[in-house]
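I am still getting used to backbone structure tokens and would like to learn alongside you. Would you supply a protein for us yourself, any chain you care to pick? Start from the sequence, derive the backbone structure tokens from it, and show both lines together. Go ahead whenever you are ready, and we will take it from there.
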Amino acid sequence: MGSTIKMRTGCGTLYVTINEDEHGVCEVFSQMGKSGGCAMSQSEAVARLISLALRSGVRIEPLIRQLKGIRCPSPLMGKGGIILSCPDAVGKALEKYMNRKRAMEAGEPIEEATTLDKFAPEPIFSGNIVGVCPDCGAALVHEGGCMVCRSCGYSKCG
């Protein structure tokens, strides 16, 4: 039994499939909307390693903590918050899945049409954040037609 979660990333659409057996989550697959390329191979590698770790008895919570927050040069701000990278998207997809599973086990009513987005943590960022500074890692904001870091002064425009 399992679910597939669609995650938008700066590299394209990532589909994360999470499967369970009688012992819990046992495997993860990821598929990038576009075939080939570095992002596709890296996300497949991440999913394979997660599956291996799960089958080896590693709990899912530490895996989620390790994946969330990994940054790349192409973050994407969406309605569920900022996706920092493909591994970050996988971690957040796993977190959504586990939050929904816990809600169901607690007996909370979940409508059939409810998507996993309901179980996403609240976004940390607000305002006009459009990415992550490649120099210092702080938020990039849209200002004067350009992406600017208010922490270090980096500007995407030069």
About this structure: The chain has a mean pLDDT of 82. The radius of gyration is 17 Å. The chain has two domains: 2-124, 127-158. Residues 2-124 form one domain.
